[in-house]
């Protein structure tokens, strides 16, 4: 690559000239970004080509990770890091008077996802490539990604995310690999030469054009592919055009191309829109067609070859959004490749595996039968047949038990149940943390676990420590390497070697110094963004994630209000100064979540400017939470708020990123918090609240009355009343919906039930922070025991346990 920074400088300036015909002095920062990225892309392209060549030659099994969302963030920095050339580029640019960080900041985040699920997919791509695993992504190239959030007068405003405005250097359009996807029309079955053939007529077809993005492995020559599909059409209504009806001439074109125009900004809350179902089939069909085409080239195209497809291909579906992969693979194998039903079924089941990411009942996808039938008639036929065969098998085992059979059917009550389709059509079903997998097995999918006892398993989530530690927190990374060597970069469990420094005062001081630098960096961002000065000696307490009732930002906010009340009543109250930092988006149609944002901003307005408080607590809401903003916030956090109602957060991954950066968790026994506690030990985490078992028992048997919590604690009563009694400077009904969610629906998420425990946990945290030696030891131990939560561990568990794939070492030439 670059033997020296001199060589880099030469290549870079030459690239500027050949691309823009400009000298360094004449070029803008955006030009510099394009020049640097293009230069890096060329290096990557060579490796990419060789990877593809060697994958084909090796004939090893490949895995394809199908996901509606890939929340990549920026790629320049992570590509430089994985290529191992960050420093040579940084120093070279510096000589030329350019700051690498400023160049990186030009890149628009690829925000092709909502939150946890989409970011997990991006972490997995990074880990697959870095472990030299032949694993690729399949998704949608949304013209508009996750909306941009503005806060105006305390309210969330959504603006379209035009991330492709300046082009996207990392993608390559592969027009010659386009495939056709068919919607609507009618299907009839016809006997032809002794075979039943499906004939699809009067459909509308969309051209799916792939855009490939390289996925660069760290410290190896692997470059995998993320293939994102874009909907296009050659269709042009010439007859309308020639009659002068130009609008009509383009109307159908736009309507077909709408398929990949927008990402639905719903997280854990389905909208049930036809366009979303269309998106799901669109990328699943395109992805499978292209995989089968490649398989035939490499492994043969006779029906007998295709019947063995599971030996060379694994398809993983990220939640149920791509569950149409089950009937679509059946269709391709039967209708296009001539396999029998039984052959196609065996191959399909052995190829596909499924991860569940949520058990919120309202988030389990189901599509109205009529919608599926109309939009995807062939899919519906196959689903119906699958359903009949599955119900017959259930009848064999549970004859007469109609209730159970109805509860497990793929099609019932007028809906297609996507989780059932995914479970039945796959060979592996996993949850994303121990407690979540157990709830799947024993509650939500218990019937299925009894019927298919070997199918269920757990794969606890992880995050890529390359982006979330090494790249986001370079000062910390440097300090770690100085202490324990650089082995942790390839083997994150080696971070455990830091444990012996936990009580070393000199090391503690250096850890504290790094945190302080990161806090200063965030403080100056806050100053720039909202004009608020925050005290970098205060505790930086972070809750950054989607806004959702079950994540209980409201618990955090009510506790802040309580703290404020107590400070007003007793100015001598001994507390450490604290800056409460919130960030996160609400789904556009989620009214309660939007009011929670307004509530937090109202608290900020009241508290930050109250002279009685004198800056001892401050509240900050940072707009437009995104991967890049997370990279700024997380390294600066002292405290990680992970306070969901136990049983509701499948895993959480922000909890892992924050611990990796030395934040101490205050949290419930939910999702991966439990495993974080197991790793760091009770002394290095602050736990409170109901357990998942207790919560589930309340749901099943009752026994919780919110009025007991409300009347039983005067502090709780006060903050709940303050929502609606005119105490806050907003119209009196502004927070009715929040009040209602607590008091009128018996506090579905146990906010008031857990309040006292949370307040006590906060008091404990405050006390721990006062002893800086003890606190720094906790911070160090959190970093030390975060190795288990690196996605390299997670992905290798998938590779061995589910996909049955092994590394393919890509040679340099
Ligand atoms: C159809 C509406 C919809 C959209 C997105 C329903 C469900 C989803 C996702 C499955 C929600 C999601 O992102 N779940 C999160 O997945 C993370 C990765 O496994 C977990 O860490 C989070 O706990 C879980 O909420």
Descriptive key words:
813 residues; alpha/beta; Rossmann fold; 3 domains; 6-stranded parallel β-sheet; 34 helices; binds ligand 26W; carbohydrate metabolism; Pyridoxal_P_attach_site
Tell me what you see in this structure.
49% of the residues lie in helices and 15% in strands. It has three domains: 92 residues, no CATH class; 376 residues, Rossmann fold (3-Layer(aba) Sandwich); 254 residues, Glycogen Phosphorylase B (Rossmann fold, 3-Layer(aba) Sandwich), CATH 3.40.50. With 813 residues, the protein is α/β, with parallel strands linked by helices. Strand 11 and strand 12 form a beta hairpin. Helix 11 runs antiparallel to helix 12, helix 11 packs across helix 14 and helix 23 crosses helix 30. The chain contains 34 helices and 25 strands. The strands form six sheets. Strands 1, 4, 7, 8, 11, 12, 13, 14, 18 and 19 form a ten-stranded mixed β-sheet that branches. The site of ligand 26W has 23 residues, from helix 6.
User: Into which percent range does the helicity of residues fall?
Assistant: 40-55%
Global structural class: alpha/beta
Distance between the termini: 14 Å
Q: Could you describe the largest sheet, including whether it forms a barrel?
A: 10 strands, mixed
| Average of per-residue pLDDT values | 97
How large is the share of residues in beta strands?
A: 15-25%
CATH architecture of the largest domain: 3-Layer(aba) Sandwich
Instruction: Count every beta strand, where a strand is a DSSP E run of 2 or more residues.
Output: 25
Hetero groups in this structure are:
ligand 26W
Radius of gyration: 27 Å
| Shape assignment | globular
> If you consult CATH, what is the topology of the largest domain?
Rossmann fold
* Fourth-tier CATH superfamily name of the largest domain: Glycogen Phosphorylase B
Number of domains: 3
- The number of helical runs is 34
* Uncertain stretches of 5 or more adjacent residues: none
CATH class of the largest domain: Alpha Beta
């Amino acid at each position: 690559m670059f033997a020296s920074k001199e060589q880099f400088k030469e290549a870079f300036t030459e690239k500027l000239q050949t691309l823009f015909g400009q000298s360094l002095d004449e070029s803008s920062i955006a030009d510099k970004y394009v020049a640097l990225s293009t230069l890096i892309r060329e290096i990557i392209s060579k490796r990419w080509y060789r990877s593809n060549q060697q994958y084909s030659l090796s004939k090893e099994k490949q895995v394809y990770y199908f996901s509606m969302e890939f929340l990549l963030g920026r790629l320049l920095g992570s590509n430089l890091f994985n290529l191992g050339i960050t420093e040579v580029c940084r120093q070279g640019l510096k000589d030329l008077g350019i700051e690498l960080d400023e160049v990186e900041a030009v890149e628009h985040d690829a925000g092709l996802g909502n939150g946890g699920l989409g970011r997990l997919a991006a972490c997995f791509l990074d880990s697959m490539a870095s472990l030299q695993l032949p694993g690729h992504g399949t998704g949608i190239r949304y013209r508009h990604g996750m909306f941009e959030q503005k806060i105006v007068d305390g309210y969330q405003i959504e603006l379209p995310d035009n991330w492709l405005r300046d082009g996207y250097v990392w993608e390559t359009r592969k027009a010659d690999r386009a495939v056709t996807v068919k919607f609507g029309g009618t299907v009839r079955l016809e006997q032809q030469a002794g075979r039943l053939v499906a004939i699809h007529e009067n459909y509308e077809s969309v051209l799916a054009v792939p855009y490939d993005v390289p996925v660069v492995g760290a410290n190896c020559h692997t470059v995998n592919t993320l293939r994102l599909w874009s909907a296009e059409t050659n269709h042009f209504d010439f007859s309308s055009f020639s009659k002068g009806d130009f609008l009509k001439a383009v109307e159908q074109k736009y309507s077909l191309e709408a398929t990949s125009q927008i990402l639905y900004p719903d997280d854990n809350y389905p909208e049930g829109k036809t366009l979303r179902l269309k998106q799901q089939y669109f990328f699943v069909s395109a992805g499978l067609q292209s995989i089968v085409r490649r398989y035939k080239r490499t492994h043969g195209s006779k029906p007998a070859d295709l019947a063995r497809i599971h030996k060379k291909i694994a398809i993983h579906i990220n939640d149920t959004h791509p569950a149409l992969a089950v009937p679509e693979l059946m269709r391709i194998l039967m209708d296009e490749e001539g396999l029998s039903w039984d052959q196609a079924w065996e191959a399909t089941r052995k190829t596909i595996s499924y991860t569940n990411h949520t058990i919120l009942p309202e988030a389990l996808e189901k599509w109205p039968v009529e919608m599926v039938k109309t939009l995807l008639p062939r899919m519906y036929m196959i689903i119906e047949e699958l359903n009949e065969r599955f119900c017959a098998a259930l009848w064999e085992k549970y004859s007469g038990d109609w209730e159970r059979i109805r509860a497990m059917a793929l099609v019932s009550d007028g809906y297609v149940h996507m989780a059932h389709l995914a479970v039945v059509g796959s060979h592996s079903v996993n949850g994303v943390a121990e407690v979540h997998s157990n709830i799947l097995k024993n509650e939500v999918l218990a019937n299925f676990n009894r019927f298919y006892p070997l199918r269920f398993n757990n794969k606890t989530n992880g995050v890529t420590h390359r982006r979330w530690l090494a790249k986001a927190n370079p000062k910390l990374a440097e300090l770690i390497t100085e202490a324990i060597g650089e082995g942790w970069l390839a083997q994150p469990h080696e971070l455990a070697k830091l444990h012996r420094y936990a009580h070393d005062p000199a090391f503690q001081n250096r850890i504290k110094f790094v945190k302080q630098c990161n806090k200063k960096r965030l403080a100056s961002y806050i100053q720039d963004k909202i004009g608020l000065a925050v005290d970098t000696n205060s505790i930086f307490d972070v809750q950054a994630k989607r806004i959702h009732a079950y994540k209980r930002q409201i618990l955090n906010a009510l506790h802040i209000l309580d703290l404020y009340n107590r400070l007003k009543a007793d100015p001598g109250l001994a507390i450490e100064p604290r800056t409460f930092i919130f960030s996160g988006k609400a789904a556009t149609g989620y009214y309660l979540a939007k009011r929670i944002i307004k509530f937090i901003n109202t608290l900020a307005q009241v508290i930050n400017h109250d002279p009685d408080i004198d800056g001892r607590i401050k509240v900050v809401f940072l707009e437009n939470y995104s991967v890049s903003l997370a990279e700024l916030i997380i390294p600066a956090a002292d405290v990680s708020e992970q306070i969901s109602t136990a049983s509701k957060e499948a895993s959480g991954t922000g909890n892992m990123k924050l611990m990796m950066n030395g934040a101490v968790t205050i949290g419930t026994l939910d999702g991966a918090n439990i495993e974080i506690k197991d790793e760091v030990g009770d002394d290095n985490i602050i736990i409170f609240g109901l357990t998942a078992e207790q919560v589930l028992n309340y749901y099943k048997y009752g026994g919780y009355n919110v009025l007991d919590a409300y009347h039983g604690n005067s502090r709780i009563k006060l903050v709940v009343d303050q929502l609606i009694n005119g105490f806050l400077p907003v119209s009196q009904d502004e927070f009715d919906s929040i009040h209602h969610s607590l008091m009128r629906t018996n506090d579905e998420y146990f906010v008031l039930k857990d309040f006292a425990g949370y307040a006590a946990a906060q008091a404990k945290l405050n006390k721990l922070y006062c002893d800086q030696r003890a606190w720094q030891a906790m911070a160090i131990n959190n970093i030390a025991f975060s190795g288990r939560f690196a996605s390299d561990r997670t992905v290798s568990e998938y590779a061995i346990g589910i996909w049955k794939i092994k590394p393919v070492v890509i040679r340099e030439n």
